Amino acid sequence: MSTLRDLLAAGRERGVYSAAAWSVGDAGATLDRGWTGTRSRTGPALDGSEVWDLASVTKPVVGLAVMALVDEGALRLDDTVGDHLAAYRGGDKAEVTVRQLLAHTSGIPGQVPLYRDHPTRASLLEAIRLLPLTAAPGTRVQYSSQGFILLGLVAGAAAGQPLDALVQRLVCGPLGMTGTGFRPDAAARQRAVATEDCPWRGRVVVGEVHDENAVVLGGVAAHAGLFAPLTDMERLGRSLAGGARELLRPGTFAEMTTVHSEGLGLRRCLAWQGQDPSGSPAGDSFGPRAYGHTGFTGTSVWVDPATGRYVVLLTNRVHPSRAGDGIVAVRRDVHAAAAALAPADGAARR
Prior knowledge:
This is CubicO group peptidase, beta-lactamase class C family. The chain is α+β, with helices and mostly antiparallel strands and about 350 residues long. The protein has helices at about 5-15, 60-70, 80-85, 100-105, 120-130, 145-160, 165-175, 185-190, 210-215, 230-240, 250-255, 325-340, and strands at about 20-25, 30-35, 50-55, 180, 195-200, 205, 225-230, 275, 290-295, 300-305, 310-315. It has 12 helices and 11 strands.
């Protein structure tokens, strides 16, 4: 049994989640992968085909699509919201740039439960338009799902294409991520890992996006909503570890994975979290140029350019309840164990 399997099986025994899957590797080799647990507390054992709610790991996948639009010339990082969305012209978000939305320096507050008072897509989007800024754009990092919802609107307007189609064309298609997408169909829902016993919905959520604002938006949003199996997340991890050459020009990818918030508190790249000196979800086992992203449901992907290593971790830590923070220690232990794995020499090539 691998160290990672032991760690993740122990997390299940402690009640942190019912299910976990993982993959560690580089651009050409898988060093360790597997799964443990059950799809729900009383559900069937995992077999590796499961579909996971990625939650905020949706953000960097959408970010890759946005950067691909930059490569196509359909969008520029210094374009403003007002350049692409007429309804925002003259308002406090008109001059917010695509770069600021990607780096969470837009000043748009995040983690706002707008779904409670805005039960339709139109009313929720209007609430975002009217949501007052809590900082001047470009002055501090403030993690903002609402900012990413707005980014998705900008990207769709720039490309003249719905967000789900953009992600498929610019990310999932080129990487062969055939099982990844918004709004899983009936077959995918049958393989979905359970998330929360949701008080708002009055039931255990399975195969439907966990994030309530994303539910109101119809399941397609730039901040949350993607579902994926482990095999597809491995494809993403390998691509990132190799410089995402299937998706972006080298200079564009370098721009995306460079910190754009120095001196503003947290280190943020474009749609990625940089490696903070302390408090990083990946702990201190990865180098200073490492980047990644976590998802509220218990998912994450992290990459260390210094070693060329990626780590994918998928759990349902919100099942049956979002209460508890045991995933914090699990994530750090997993990344420490992943960093300690022997190099790819002799590893099974995939």
